[in-house]
Amino acid sequence: MNSLEDCYIWVIGASSGIGAALAMELSQRGARVILSARRQKDLEAVKEGLAGTEHMVYPLDVREINQIKSVIDDLKEKEVRLSSVIFMPAFYKPHSVGGHDIDIIDQMIAVNLTGAFNVVHCVKPWLLQQGYGQIVLCSSIAGYRGLPMGQPYCATKAGLISYAESLKIELEASNLDVKVISPGFVKSPLTDKNDFPMPFIIGVDIAAKVIADGLLKRGFEISFPKRMIFVMKVLRLMPNFLYFMVMRYIFNIISQKRIL
Ligand SMILES: NC(=O)c1ccc[n+]([C@@H]2O[C@H](COP(=O)([O-])OP(=O)(O)OC[C@H]3O[C@@H](n4cnc5c(N)ncnc54)[C@H](OP(=O)(O)O)[C@@H]3O)[C@@H](O)[C@H]2O)c1
Q1: Which of 28, 62, 178, 223 could, after both became Cys, cross-link 167 (CB 3.0–4.6 A)?
Q2: Is the C-beta atom of 33 inside 6 A of ligand 1?
Q3: Is 13 in the pocket of ligand 1 (CB under 6 A)?
Q4: 168 close to ligand 1 (CB < 6 Angstrom)
Q5: Each residue of 88-114: pLDDT tens digit?
């Protein structure tokens, strides 16, 4: 993609947070945005605020493959040529020392990971038929390594990075571009649930600008903010014994604070 002007970009998870801000940023850069998530009223409210016209709202739940398919059928019928699909949805609940109940873990995997497989499964044949297109999966720096108190969320985000890497290699020969987004802390309804300090936290508007810029670049990963990425990449490169030493120390501090 050389420009966002007049491109159809499908933002799934556009009813709040980074996805809503991204829809706004893309519209200001001339894109036609297709907005999806479960909450139709919130999607309509986001659409109202967008610059330009020709934006569309399609409520869906990424756990329901038939809902994704029927949106694609409708878009195809409208002769939409899709430039990019951006997968933003996540289910997140802060972790307690004792861990999550299995139903919470199931939900997290179903939305964050299986949801991405569902979307890619449905959209890939369409993009292959077009002969071009972009698939963007939103992971997190939480997917770089297993973090204490991060279990199911980190695991789903690590899975998304791995999935995006596989897809990139498999699809580049077919002229499909695959990217992964790795945000650090961004102030949104998701992080409003956290009661711990979030270093280098940024606003959704800044995150949206970096993502919109990144869509047009050649690189695979769109990551931000820089200082947080530096810290996490150092942790990722550490040998296991050193990584576990650092994390053991942090985990002890967190556990003591929660017990007190
Ligand atoms: N905020 C951060 O610090 C941060 C850091 C790293 C990564 N991320 C990632 O960034 C992405 C956006 O997060 P956010 O912070 O903007 O959180 P958010 O405001 O909670 O946004 C999550 C979005 O996902 C949608 N969603 C949830 N379940 C869905 C489902 N089953 N089907 C379809 N849509 C669904 C929500 O809409 P509905 O409820 O209307 O369905 C909402 O639009 C997530 O993937 C998150 O993991 C965020």
Answers
A1: 178
A2: no
A3: yes
A4: no
A5: 999 998 876 667 789 999 999 999 999
